[in-house]
Amino acid sequence: MPGSQKELRYPGPEDHYFEHCERITGEPGDVALFYGLTWHCAAPNHAHHDRSAILILCLRKWVKPMEDTSAALPQKFLDAASPDLRQLPGLNYSYPEVLDSARAGNTEGQQ
Fold it and tell me: Rounded to a whole number, what is the largest CA-CA distance in the chain?
């Protein structure tokens, strides 16, 4: 929904979200870039072929993403994945434990 990134909130029923959305279209090989705060969704694929996407999220190391996509991966996949394959969804990229400890009220190791 164009301009929605300026709202800094989730859409509500009063926004008539689907009435004001615009569809991003393109040809095979095209790229669509948009700011993640823009209200967006995936529409049904009515084509006679599959539709593929690569989603990239760039965050500072200390910012946890809103969605934990790696948690949706089956354990069988995780057990068999090579180190390079595990790196793609960020499985080898740990978040700072200091922030998790601070949130839990753990002061052990602080000076």
Answer: 62
